[in-house]
Structures are given as C-alpha cells and as structure tokens.
Amino acid sequence: MPLYEIHHTCPLAVSQKDELATAITTIHATKFTTPKNFVNVTFHQTSPEDNNAYIGGKPRTGNHIRAHVRAGPSRTQDDWNELCKAVERSWTEIAGTPLPRLKGRPEPDTKLRSVIIMGDITAGLEAGVLLPSAGGDVGWLQNHWEGFKRRAEAGEEEMVDLVQDVEERDLLKGSMSEAERDRAEQKRLEEMLGWGYAA
C-alpha cells in the first residue's frame, strides 16, 4: 500500500538496507493497521557527481525519504508528524554512521535531509487485490480474509506471511468500534468476576 522511496547519495550496505526496510515497515504497520506485506520500500542511490537535486535553485546532494501513502480523515497531522520523526530516528540509528570510506575520497554525508509524506495514493492493485481507502484496512482484511487464507494454504509465500502477520498482530480484532470493544471488555470482566448480566 504505502511506497517508501529512499534516495541516497551515501553508500548503504545491504545489511543497512535490510534494517531500514524492516524498520520502516514496522513503523508504518504499527502506526496504522497496514499488514506488513503491503509496505513497499525501494532504494535509489545517486552518486554526488550525478546529483540532479536542486534546493533553493542550487544543486544539493543529500539523502531523502519520500513516502506515497493513502491519506484520509482517520489519519491526523500528528500521526504523520510522528511517522516522520520515527523514520528519521531509524535512519539516524541505522545509516547515520558512515561506512569506511575509500582512500582519497571525502567522507560521505549520511544526514537525512528530508522525510516527505505524500498522501497521493488514490487507488491501487497489489497482490491481485484492490487496495482499501485509508482507515479501511480492517474491513478490507475481513472481506478478503478467506481468499488470503486459501492462497496461503496453497503455498503462496506472500500470503503465508500476510496471514501470519494479521494473526500475530490480531488485526482483525480492530473491526469493532470503540464502544463495541468496551462492551466486550466489560462482558469479559463480568464473566471473570461471575456477576452481572454475563454471569
């Protein structure tokens, strides 16, 4: 669903790419109810000599992360700001220390210049399924759950991972409204105590 594009001029080791992709996937998936299998991360390296970026009308090299996401009323400005800060922290922890430099070359700039979130995903098709609108992930999962399970049982690796992620994170549980969850919790508590209407 979301697409994170990492444009970097500093070299990144495969292990750093792996860690960044995992961190960004986890950040987005836990911030929202997005299954991890639908978080996409791509890397695009530009050499400082081939830089095509201009800031303030002047050529500038730098490292940038751009995220294309589904925007909607269920996601607030605070949500997006927190997401930006979490992504920035992950970059600093994982890529902020430069790799050993080559003899005679300057030390690469590992600072992250920007994290830009663009709410520009209007529609999409991924793994053969049309994507839901922002905030509609739980209902979408419910509508496609039996199909996802059948595809997992048939050995489709991506669907095996999806089913495991949804079950481990109990994402289908989010289908109840807050009031319904409160009533269910109250009922469960009353049953445990052995009193009330649920006893």
How many H/I helices?
A: 5
Per CATH, what is the topology of the largest domain?
Answer: Macrophage Migration Inhibitory Factor
**Helical amount:** 40-55%
Secondary structure class reads alpha/beta
- If classified by CATH, what would the architecture of the largest domain be? 2-Layer Sandwich
Sequence stretches where pLDDT stays below 50 over 5 or more residues:
none
- The CATH class label of the largest domain is Alpha Beta
Strand order of the largest sheet: 2-1-5-6
Biggest sheet statistics:
4 strands, mixed
The H-level CATH homologous superfamily of the largest domain, spelled out, is Macrophage Migration Inhibitory Factor
Q: Name the shape in a single word.
A: elongated
Describe the structure.
The protein has 199 residues and is of the alpha/beta class. It has two domains: 134 residues, Macrophage Migration Inhibitory Factor (2-Layer Sandwich), CATH 3.30.429.10; 64 residues, no CATH class. It is built from five helices and eight strands; from the N terminus they run E-H-E-E-E-E-H-E-E-E-H-H-H. A four-stranded mixed sheet has the order 2-1-5-6, covered by helices on one side. The longest helix is centred in the middle third of the chain and has 19 residues. The N and C termini lie far apart (44 Å).
Please give a quick description of this structure.
The protein is of the alpha/beta class and 199 residues long. It has helices at 14-31, 77-95, 137-153, 157-169, 178-193, and strands at 3-8, 40-45, 54-55, 58-59, 63-68, 112-118, 125-126, 129-130. The chain has two domains: 1-134, Macrophage Migration Inhibitory Factor (2-Layer Sandwich), CATH 3.30.429.10; 136-199, no CATH class.
